[in-house]
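Appendix B. One record, verbatim.
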Amino acid sequence: MSSPTIAPFGSWKSPITSDLIVAKSIGLGGVFFDNNDVYWLEGRPQEKGRNVLVKYSSDGQITEITTQPFNVRTRVHEYGGGSFLVSNGVVYFVNFQDQRLYQKLPNEEAKPLTPDNQFRYADFILDNAHNRLISVCEDHSFIDRECENKIVAIDLTTGEINTLIEGDDFYSSPRLSPDGKQLAWISWNHPNMPWDGTKLWLGNIESDGSLKDIKWIAGDIDESINEPKWSPDCQLYYVSDKSGWSNLYCYKNQVNNVPIFPLTAEFSYPHWVFGLSTYTFISEEEIICTYTQDGRWYLGTLNIPDRQLSILELPYSNIASLHSHGNKVVFIGSSTIDPTSVIYLDLNLSQTKILKTSSNIDLDYGYFSEPELIEFPTENGLNAYAWYYPPQNKDYSFPDGELPPLLVKSHGGPTAAANPSFSLKIQYWTSRGFGYLDVNYGGSIGFGKAYRQRLDKNWGVVDVNDCINGAKYLVNQGKVDGDRLAISGGSAGGYTTLAALTFDDTFKAGASYYGVSDLESLAKDTHKFESRYLDRLIGKYPEEKEIYEQRSPINFTNKLNCPVIFFQGLEDKVVPPNQAEMMLESLTKKGIPVAYVPFEGEQHGFRQADNIKYALDSEFYFYSRIFKFTTAETLQPITILNYDY
C-alpha cells in the first residue's frame, strides 16, 4: 500500500470528475404507487434535462413510459412538480414543450387531453364518479395582467375544462375523499408564500360535480397548512405550523387545537413545488411519516390512537416523496455516503430494496468526505448551523503548515435547507482539497418556525452574517485558510453570495449562479408566484424602496473588491439574465477580475449535461487562477476579464 502523495490543496487529482458526474448521474423524483407498480421521474442531463416517467413492475421490469420527445414537467408557479398521475395503468402527464395535459392508455401512444392554449396544469386527482381529473390550473392568456390560478375539472372524454374554485391568488393540493363525496384544497394570497400562511378548505361534491357547503377549516395568514390527505376511513389530516413546528393534525381533532403527535420537528418541506409527500397511510390507525430534526430526516410509523412514534432504523439522512400501498412503502432516500435512490420498503419483512439509484459509481470510500454538523455563534447572541465537509482524498496528503481553501455554499430558496445527503458535486470539491461548508443560515427550514422567520425583513443581512460567521468559525478553529475563502450559491443563494462579497471583505472570491444583484429589478420583473415574496423578506415595494436600494449589490460595486464569476441561463424567467449582465458591466468598468458564463436553452437551474459539466469545471478553473494553485487535470480555460495571467 503506497503512501499518499504530498501536494498542495486544490491540486489533488480526483476520480470524481465532471464527466463522471454528468455521465453517471440522473435526477430522481415524484415516486408514486399505482397498485403494485411503482412510478418515478428521471431527470436526464444526457438528454438535455428531459424528465422521463418510468415504471417498475411487480415482476422487476423497468419500462420507460414517456418516450422522446415528451418531457414530463409543468411550469405552474415556474417551479412545477405534481406533473403526472397514474391510475390502473392509465397515465396522465404534462408535456413541458406545450404544457398540455396528455393521457396514455396501456400499450397506446400518448394523446393530448387539453387544448393547445395558454393554460398550465399541475397536482392532479382522479374523480372516477364524474369521469374527470381535478387539477390546479394557471391561465396565462392575459396580456395586461398577471396569470390567474384556479382549480378546474377536466373531462376525460371531451377534454372540456370547468372551473371549480377561483378567486384567490394561488391554489394547491386538491384532494378527494375516498368515498368521492368531499374535496379539500389549499389557497393563499399575496404577499404570502405557502410556508407563511395558507387556508385549508373543504367542500361537498354534488351529483353534478359542483361544490357546495364550502367552508374554511384551518390555517390563516400567519399559519401555514400543507399536505392535506384523507385516511382510508375518510378523516382529513394535514400539516400545520401553528405550534411553531410543522406537525401533523386531524380535522376531527380540530376542537382540541393540538397536533396528533407534538414534536419539536418539521413534518414537511416548504412547498416550492407541487406533489410533495412526507406522510402516508398504511391503515386507518397508522401513518408512516418522515420528519427533520437538526438538519437530518428520519422515517417512522405513527400509531394514531396510541400517539406512539416508532423510528425505523434506516441509514438514510434525507427522505422525500413518501408513498404507500398496503404495507409496501416507496420513497426517495440518500445518506451521507449513498447517492439518492428510489427505495422500496416492505414493512412486513422490514427489508429495503433499491429500485433505482441516481449515480452508478464504483469508487473507493477513501475519496469521500463525510459531513460534520457544526453549530456556531452568529449575530445577536444566536447560533446557526452548517454541515462541514473536510478535504478527503485517500491518495493525497498536504504539506506541513498548509490549510485548505474553503468553499461556502449558500443554499437557494432562501427558504430551503442544507442536508447531509450524498452529493457528487460536493465530493468534486473535497476530493481536490477544498473544505466545503453547507450553511443552514437563519431562514432555513428544519429548525422551527422562529428560526425560519429570522429572515423576515432581514434577507441580505441574517443569511450573509451566518455565512460569514460560519467561515470565520472554521478559520478560528484552525481548519481552513482565512486568505482563501470563497462563497457560491444559486438563485437566492446567488444573492446571498453577491451581498456577502459586496458588503463584507471576508470572502476572497465567489460564484453566482443565476443570482439576484438588483432587488428592485427582481421586485418588478419576476413571475407571479414570487412577485410579492420580497414583501416579507425585504419590505413592501415601492413604499420601502430605500431598503431595496441599500441591499442591492448592483448599487455598491464600489465596495466589491474581489473576483466573481457569473453563471446564467438565458431563458431564466425567475431571475432574468439582465441581473448578472448589469453586475458584469459594473465590475468590468471597475477593473475587478470577473467572468461571465451564459447558457442558451437553460432556465432557472441547469439541466443539460454539457452545461452542468462546463459550469462546475469553470468555477474550479476560476478559483485555481484566483487562489493560484495548479489543477491536476487540464481544464478548458475561460475568459476572466481584468485578470493578468
